[in-house]
Design brief:
By secondary structure, this protein is an alpha/beta fold. About 50% of the residues lie in helices and about 15% in strands. The chain has one domain: Rossmann fold, CATH 3.40.50.720.
């Protein structure tokens, strides 16, 4: 199937920068009516102005998604503004790059809160509105698009909290895909690898990893945004984005022992180069 997004009400989280911002712009150019949200009021205002500048429709709601009341207000405002909610795109997220042995309980809880509990509770709040969308529009299938990470399919050294949160997010996605089928709501999953960030220091809670990750040559956020929008239009249940992510995705299924060896070698080689062995 192909999903026509013209006139559809879409809520995009993490829209002030990075993947979320680029997804919002692409959806607006396809005729969707957007509610964009993040914590930065100024950055959201700039985004809305850009969308309106090329004739798109967008409204912003500045919230702290870790606050339950803010989440309730956000979803209610999104549904009220356009008379319903047709699509939820969960694109907000953070990461912590460093070994678990040197991490803290606070970092673990912070990553789990933003990467797992926030989108999970937004889905819970959005579900009645999405279900109503299916009832109101004959033949239309509302959708939830979860932007997770290849870390949700494979444990990557020095990304323990990120992998834990994304594994939980992927597990929830697969469960809801089956549960929400009876509501005619599609639940889609996008799995990028390492993505170039607008501001790496704001994206990473810490940057102390003990493996080599080349952030400068990482996957471009524009390419990831393209994959998110294509997945929504073409109703792709799961999409690994980029060569590295795709290689890890297939290796996990076909050669899991080889993949585990590669991950251990990455740690050993980093340690040897830095005189830690």
């Amino acid at each position: 199937m192909r999903r026509n997004l013209t006139g559809r009400s879409i809520l995009v989280t993490g829209a002030s920068r990075g993947i979320g911002r680029r997804v919002a712009i692409r959806l607006a150019k396809l005729g969707a009516r957007l509610i964009v949200t993040a914590r930065s009021e100024d950055e959201l205002a700039t985004l809305v102005a850009e969308i309106r500048g090329f004739g798109g429709e967008a409204e912003s709601v500045t919230v702290d998604l870790t606050d339950p009341l803010h989440r309730e207000l956000l979803v209610a405002a999104a549904a009220e503004h356009y008379g319903g909610l047709d699509v939820l795109v969960n694109a907000a997220g953070v990461a912590s790059f460093g070994e678990f042995a040197t991490s803290t309980p606070l970092i673990l809880r912070q990553v789990m809160e933003i990467n797992y509990f926030v989108p999970a509770e937004l889905i819970r709040l959005a579900q009645p509105h999405l279900q109503q969308s299916a009832l109101n529009h004959d033949g239309w299938r509302p959708a939830i698009v979860n932007v997770a990470s290849i870390c949700g399919r494979c444990g990557i050294p020095s990304l323990p909290e990120h992998c834990a949160s994304k594994h939980a997010f992927v597990g929830l996605t697969e469960t809801l895909r089956a549960e929400y089928a009876r509501f005619h709501i599609d639940v889609l999953l996008v799995l990028p690898g390492v993505v170039q960030s607008d501001d790496l220091n704001r994206h990473l809670i810490r940057n102390e990893g003990q493996i080599y990750l080349n952030f400068d040559s990482a996957h471009k956020a524009d390419s990831v945004a393209d994959s998110v929008v294509r997945s929504l239009i073409r109703n792709r249940r799961e999409q690994a984005v980029g060569f590295v992510s795709g290689t890890v995705w297939w290796s996990k299924r076909l050669w899991p022992r080889v993949l585990r060896w590669v991950m251990k070698r990455k740690v050993q080689k980093f340690a040897a180069r830095h005189g830690k062995v």
